[in-house]
Amino acid sequence: MFQIYCPYCEELREEEEFHPKGQAHIVRPANPEACSDEEWGDYLFFRDNPRGIHHELWVHAVGCRKFFNVTRHTVSYAILETYKIGEQPSVTAEPAVSESTTSTDDVRQGVRA
Amino acid sequence: MNQQVQRLAQGGRIDRSRPLDFTFNGQTYQGYHGDTLASALLANGVDIVNRSFKYSRPRGIVAAGAEEPNAVVQLGASEAAQVPNVRATQQALYAGLVARSTNGWPSVQKDLMGVVGKVGGKFMPPGFYYKTFMAPASMWMTYEKYIRKSAGLGRSPAEADPDIYDHRNGHCEVLVIGAGPSGLAAALAAARSGVRVILADEQEAMGGSLLDSRETLDGKPADQWVADVLEELSGLANVTLLPRTTANGYHDHNFVTLHERRTEHLADCAPRTAEGARQSRARLHRVRAGQVILATGAHERPLVYAGNDVPGNLLAGAVSTYIRRYGVVPGNKLVLSVSNDHAYRAALDWHDAGREVVAIVDAREAPDGDLVGEARERGIRVITGSAVIEAKGANRVSAARVARIDIDGFRVAGPVETLACDCVASSGGYSPVIHLASHTGARPTWNDGILGFVPTLVDGVHAAGGAHGIYALGEVLADGVAVGSQAAAATGGEAAEVALPASQAIAESPACALYQVPHEKPTLRAPKQFVDLQNDVTAAAIELATREGFESIEHVKRYTAMGFGTDQGKLGNINGMAIAARCLKRTIPEVGTTVFRPNYTPVTFGAIVGRHCGELFDPERYTALHQWHVENGAEFEDVGQWKRPWYYPRKQGGKLETMHEAVARECRAVREGVGILDASTLGKIDIQGPDAREFLARIYTNKWEKLAVGKCRYGLMCKDDGMVTDDGVTSCLADNHFVMTTTTGGAAAILEWLELWHQTEWPELDVTFTSVTDHWATMTVTGPKSRALLAELTDDIDLDRESFKFMDWREGTVAGVPARVFRISFTGELTFEINVQAHYAMHVWKALFEHGKKYQLTPYGTETMHVLRAEKGFIIVGQDTDGSVTPEDLGMQWCVGYDKPFSWIGKRALTRSDTARSDRKQLVGLRPKDPKVVLEEGAQIVFDPNHAIPMPMVGHVTSSYYSPTLDSGFALAVVKGGQQRMGESVYLPMADGSVHEAEITSTIFIDPKGERQHV
What we know:
The complex is a heterodimer. By secondary structure, chain A is mostly beta strands. Chain A has one domain (3-108): Folate-binding fold, CATH 3.30.2270. Chain A contains two helices and six strands. In chain A, strand 1 (3-6) and strand 2 (11-14) form a beta hairpin. By secondary structure, chain B is an alpha+beta fold. The radius of gyration of chain B is 37 Å and the shape is elongated. The interface between A and B is medium-sized, with 37 and 28 residues. Chain A: This is Sarcosine oxidase subunit delta. Chain A: GO terms for molecular function: sarcosine oxidase activity. Chain A: One of its GO terms (biological process) is tetrahydrofolate metabolic process. Chain A: Residues 90-113 are annotated as: Disordered.
């Protein structure tokens, strides 16, 4: 079970208080009528499914009811940061792996399969 | 009563002054306080504790802890107290304990299924049951029933559990799992640094291997040091000691579930406290720890040799534990087969107990460690370069066949000597207990130095001692202190001194890698060599699996079922991987390991459920009028968490009405007189702000700009894919103040939906949302006589049909309390929805009934509500829609503002090629040709019932009822292109072969012009 820092409450709280709402930073096109069917379909249905860094939208559903963003590693499930709506993530790439340590990916391969 | 023939006169951590009677398979025995069920059974010379799962072979106790594969028993003296799946090695003995074997039919001594084992016999390969009993396929269910019965895996009680269980949230800076030498040292170091420490240990007593160690600390028996440390820890306020507590699952972000067995060492049902209070039988601790220290030690690996499952084959370490901790010698004549020095202590302990050690058979050519020397000094015969290749005996070991072996060549390299004995103990080395570290998802890595997998650790997790392959006692203690200090420092602890006790330096010669012992015959023809005792997986089965092309260890595991038992292959997995590696000519790290998952040992459902059972299973929501409904005999329906009156059966001629009769009566009352519904569960969201109107226009499909104060409007809500997600009436209270109603089940989700758009897309809109569902009670008074009734209860609301119009709302008083009255209708009849603050609801409701007597005011429930609304073609979102239905599919274009300035949620999607198709499934009415037929909801619809199978299915029934007004069945349905097929027939083939014919009609069955709501 995750422990998530709500950037509005400024506290670490249990996952039970939150709902995940999918990929973050999906902007609704300002002029939907100007979109082709394909563009509108992309906005509606197509989402990233990365192995690694993922920016997600969560809501503190039974807390402050605020939506916010989470940068989560989809292999280790580590939460690397949380930030408010309207802000941009500061973690956008995997930290470089030093030669002496094994990368998390290798260690955990196939585990969640 | 049987004698404790194998009990030593002295020694062990048992209390011989406290004898305890217990029953096993109907036979009464005696053990002592401090025994486990396993040690007591061994003391009484009980050899066979179970029959094996597949071959039905007799099985005895092998281990002394959580890794035990055979001695899995059913516990409980009464039916209600039955607990399956208990390892006798982990069950403390108490007076009156009743246990049974879980396997063996009709009994473990005489087993009929043993015959199957012999028939399948010589060789019962993986997949035997499937391959043998597969044909005819239809009989598999029958075969399986009997095979399962004879195999048996314990059974759940047929009566309710009398015990209570609970959960507790725990918080600490350092959680130490395991209270052996490394765990105690780590906990001591962390505790002295001042941080909060939880120390959990699965055994009856803390101390782990130190409780049966031959070694001394500071010149004293090792368990004296354990007592000293525990005394200090128990005196510290920042330390919580949890004995009899297994860390069963390691979850994300250092969340660990601990299963504490609070009374299972006392009785099979939790006894009352001295004050007579109930106490929980087990407790699940949900611990969020800053740092976790895995001090879980190591499991000894048995060697895999022929006949290694006959009772009397034990782990070397278990032999030492039974002798030193419980004062029980599990036999008289021991042959010990080893690959390492440490296991020699079993022979020394056996010798100390005054029994005969026939021989130590060591696979190494020239072992010369201190323990080897001690054995030789005592005159014990040590046979080197050799191993026990086969244990002989039927129900108990009678001899060991010993031979020189060539490990690299995997062959027997010399003549076989047969040694008479009644116990063969083996040790093939030690496997760190890496299960919890595996739960994090981290793959363990093979360490050639210790011949075992060591855990890979994610942030915040540490391993100490045996858990990562450090075995010498002095090093284990030092490691524990170092890791404990490190974890404490990481969480803000202050550096603290811990003086290590002096331990003995014991020189050990290196172990050799031996897993499966070669036999004179090749593996596939040799007598069975068991790898996984609980699932009856043999070395031959693994070899066969690799020959059949299974190369991945995960596939080998699934094909052979290795490690699938309740023991999760704690003893067998590494041996199985080694055998697969040998067969595939690879190394163990190349073959890799399978993944361990929670739980480490079985957890009872009681502990998992805690208090969330019975009436606390899920919250129930009641309206303010609930008590009245109960008193008036309502049957209830669950709608989300709400309990809603379903219908109100009355006694008619001494008999209670059926639902059909009650609903018919309630429907007639509404259509002809006046009825009343408790509609308080409707979701209500108070929306305020200068931009409230603009927000509504964006979120709803229809227009809101001109809705005046005092007016109401029905609205449809779509997701941005154009599919209907909610509907309801929203009323304008003031120019910047609205109250929205939502479907009962959707209230919370819709509030979140509104917040989502406001917070993420349109933060510039000045608007706020507040749930007021529980603040207001809603009473729907409906029927031609509703105006007359309401007129008796209000004098400040003008009910005249011309001034208080349909889709208006008025503020005033009803029965003397402030109310909002809405003239909206979900029945098609003249309707007044009275909203009052919830605490006034009962007063108003009762006043309505007082005045309603002369109108035969009739309460109705959700079933009648459904019939009445369906007769009018009013949809229920979630019943007549399923997330793939657009407003146009519903024929509700009248509710779509195509020309609104803002491209509202769902608009763009309505012109996508798929949503614009004309052959989409569209909502229509259905009238069965036979009016007595009520179509099944969910029934599939076809155009041509004579079409060859498979028939193209063109839709399904969404709502279907009997209408007392029409005296006919009727239905709502979605049908492909249905709106263009009015009057056509469709067909509904049923599971019993019959076919119903129905005519496509309008969705409105009664009063198509809507005149009745204007009376």
